[in-house]
Amino acid sequence: MQSLDTLPPEILLYIARFTGSDYLRAHVDRLLVAQFVAFENLALSTESLQRFLAAPKRSHLRVLASVRTLSIEGRNYDDYNSPIDAATDPDPLVLESEAENDHHRAQIEAWRMMGLIGNCVFLDLQTCGSLVSLAGYLRHMAELKAFRLKVSMKSPLNEWVDKLLTPAIVSVINSLPRSITSLTIDNPWEQSGFRHGPDDYHQICCLVLSPDFLPSLRHLRLRLRSICPRIFEMNDSAKHPYLETFIINLSRKEPALHQAEGQQSECCLEFGTIKRTPFPELLDAAEATMVRLPAIRTFRILRCIFPMLQVAAHDILTNRQALLPENARWNDLDWIGDEFTDIDVHDQSDVDLFDDSDFDAPWISLEAETAL
Q1: Residues 6 or more apart from 130 whose CB is under 8 A from it?
Q2: Which residues does the chain have with pLDDT short of 50?
Q3: CB 330 within 8 Å of CB 257
Q4: Which domain of life is it from (predicted)?
């Protein structure tokens, strides 16, 4: 029987891409023969991301040169209930100053010794640190076409976790290579008792549609804990010639997960101060932006409808609304939902966001999705 490594390169390339990256990485012999495609499509948990960051430099070089699609998935709920080893404690993060970093470590250690914090704070801080480290590698992934980040924090009521998450995500987005054609940022959130005033997500809103930032972007899906109309702004007379998909989700609820959730995104510029939905302003800005998106095919803003706690999608192109089906995810493209009509959305701008603090809602499931 002919050995794989004796086959012509074009045949070997076809076989490798047909079997897929997961199959090739499962056995060392397969990996050695077809390592040039074994890392084209990577789906990493936060744990495997940490192992990648700790791997030898030669491993990094192989991945950086090969990866085309990269998905980072946050921890599952059960991960927060398993024992944590001291060796897995998060590395110290560089904050505003070295003195602040020392204070951070001392405070966390004191809380830990008193039994006031558990696994969730340590794991969440570890995730923030991993994202900051990942940003240093992203800019070197010259072949990267699709990037998806889905991460949430289990300990939002910890001041340090709340303070570090947004800058970590911003650093990741700022480091994306210009080759990106598909970007999904999915950050299901918990209410925070610490943030007041403008949120750092405003940096994202001013960035993602800039033609100079990701000029080849075709598909953009965002679910952020704060957002504002500047998400649609571009330079005067500028257009984004390739963008085909633009989906914004203001709701934390996902029908497929049967959640009792009513939290919605807040406005970046009013984060933690005024509880109201930015949907009316986003809708106006989106409608004004359509003429600058000549290739757009799917343009939606999703929100939670009260008091039914259902997710409705407003189609910017047709000005119609439909309820997201129970078996659909918010970032899916092809689904058919029941049409929905409510009062003028501009009459809701001063309505308080739903306070679901009395609900014992399950933590959002972080099952791996099949597509970026």
Answers
A1: 46, 49, 50, 53
A2: 1, 9-10, 28, 30-31, 33, 77-101, 348-372
A3: no
A4: Eukaryota
Determine the 3-state secondary structure of 256 from DSSP: helix
Integer angstrom CA distances of residue 210 from 45, 112, 231, 250: 30, 44, 10, 21
DSSP string, 296-350: --EEEEEEEETTTTEEEEEETTTTEEEEPPTT--TT-SS----B---S-GGGGTT
Enter the tokens of residue 209. Answer: 């549609």
- Could you give the CA distance from residue 78 to residue 85 in angstroms, rounded to a whole number? 16
Residue 76 CA to residue 304 CA, distance in Å, equals 24
DSSP 108: H
**What confidence tens digit (pLDDT) does each residue in 47-102 have?**
889 888 888 887 788 788 888 999 998 765 444 444 444 334 444 444 344 444 45
Burial class of residue 105 (count of CB atoms within 10 Å of its CB; 0-12, 13-18, 19+): middle
State the alpha helices, DSSP H only, in the chain: 9-19, 21-25, 28-33, 35-38, 46-54, 57-66, 98-113, 119-138, 159-174, 202-205, 279-289
Edge-to-edge strands, sheet with 245-249? 41-45, 69-73, 146-150, 182-186, 219-223, 245-249, 298-305, 310-315, 320-323
The Cα 196–Cα 162 span in angstroms is 11
- Domain extents in the chain: 7-38, 39-81+120-348
Q: Residue 347 burial by CB count (10 A; 0-12/13-18/19+): exposed, middle or buried?
A: exposed
Number of helices (H) and strands (E), helices first, in the chain?
11, 11
Q: What is the total residue count of the chain? A: 372
Nearest CA among 272, 197, 265 for reference residue 229: 265
Write down the residue that tokens 């990701």 correspond to.
Answer: 214
N- to C-terminal Cα separation, the chain = 38
- CA 21 to centroid of chain Cα atoms: 22
pLDDT tens digits for range 308-356: 778 899 999 999 999 988 888 888 888 888 887 765 555 544 444 433 3
